[in-house]
Amino acid sequence: MISCAEAVKELWEFLDQTLAPDDQAAVDEHLAFCRRCCGELQFARELRAFLATNASRELPSEVRGRLTQFIVDLDRNGRPS
Ligand SMILES: [Zn+2]
């Protein structure tokens, strides 16, 4: 099982489906696992930290938008409404 940090590093390639099938499956498996065990809160934290440290890098706005939406969805799913 890969860690949250590892999953985050591969997340946008995952979203773009440019990962090797094995890596794609590993991230997929992690997300399913994460949803069960920690409500994705740690994952969301890792993702925010990753975006913060990579903020100066050029990200296609489309990818950034997808990641931002992903975080919004995590927050929505992680909190009782
Ligand atoms: Zn995780």
What small molecules accompany the polymer chains? zinc ion
Mean pLDDT: 76
Task: Specify the oligomeric state.
Answer: single chain
N-to-C order of helices and strands: HHHHH
What portion of residues belong to β-strands? under 5%
Major sheet details: none
Structural class: mainly alpha
Query: How many β-strands, per DSSP?
Result: 0
Number of helices: 5
The end-to-end span amounts to 30 Å
Alpha-carbon Rg, integer: 12 Å
Q: Which outline best applies?
A: globular
- pLDDT < 50 stretches: none
Helix content: over 70%
Any idea how many domains? 1
Q: What does this protein structure show overall?
A:
The protein is 74% helix and 0% strand. The protein is mainly alpha-helical and 81 residues long. The chain has one domain. α4 runs antiparallel to α5. It is globular. The termini are far apart. The structure holds zinc ion (ZN). Residues 4, 7, 30, 34, 42-43 line the site of zinc ion (ZN).
Please provide a brief summary of the model.
This protein has 81 residues and is mainly alpha-helical.
Secondary structure topology:
Blueprint: H1 4-9, H2 11-16, H3 21-37, H4 41-53, H5 61-78
This protein binds zinc ion (ZN).
Features:
81 residues; mainly alpha; 5 helices; 0% strand; globular; binds zinc ion
